[in-house]
Amino acid sequence: MKLDWLLLLWLLPAGIFKWTSGDRRRIRWRATGAAFGLVVVPASSALYSLYYLGPVAAVLGLVGLPIMLVHTRVLSQTGEWLGFPQITMIGGGDELLSLSIVGGIVWMIVYASLGWMFDSWHLHRRRTIQS
Fold first, then answer.
1. DSSP 89
2. Residue (of 14, 26, 66, 29) closest to 45 by Cα position
3. What is the pLDDT of residue 1?
4. DSSP-H helix ranges across 1-131
5. Using CA atoms, how far apart are residues 96 and 43, in angstroms rounded to an integer?
6. Is the pTM value of this prediction over 0.85?
7. What are the domain boundaries of the chain?
C-alpha cells in the first residue's frame, strides 16, 4: 500500500507542470523543479523497490536505481555536514524518513534554482524575439 502512494508521487511534478500553463507560464520550470526535488528521493526509492516484484517490474526498478543512487549519495554527504547521523538506505523507516526530509529540502532548492535559470532564460529569449 505504501508503495502505491510513493509511486503516485511522480504525478506531482507532472500536475504542477500542467497547472503552470497559461498565465502562470513564467514560473513553470521553477515550480516543476521544486515539485520534482521534493519527491525525487522517496519516489525513486519506491521505483527501485519494484525490482523485487518480478521480471516485468524489474525493468522499472533498474530505472529507479541510478536515480536513487545519484540523489542519495549527495544527501549522505550533506547530512553528515549538517550533523545528521549517517543516512543509508539499508536501515528502516526512520532512516528513510530522514533521507526523504533532507532530500526534499536539498533537491527542491537545487531543481527550483535550475528551473528559475531556465525560466529567466526563456523569458529573456521570448522578449528578445518579440522586440
1. S
2. 66
3. 45
4. 2-8, 11-19, 28-49, 55-82, 93-130
5. 12
6. no
7. 2-130
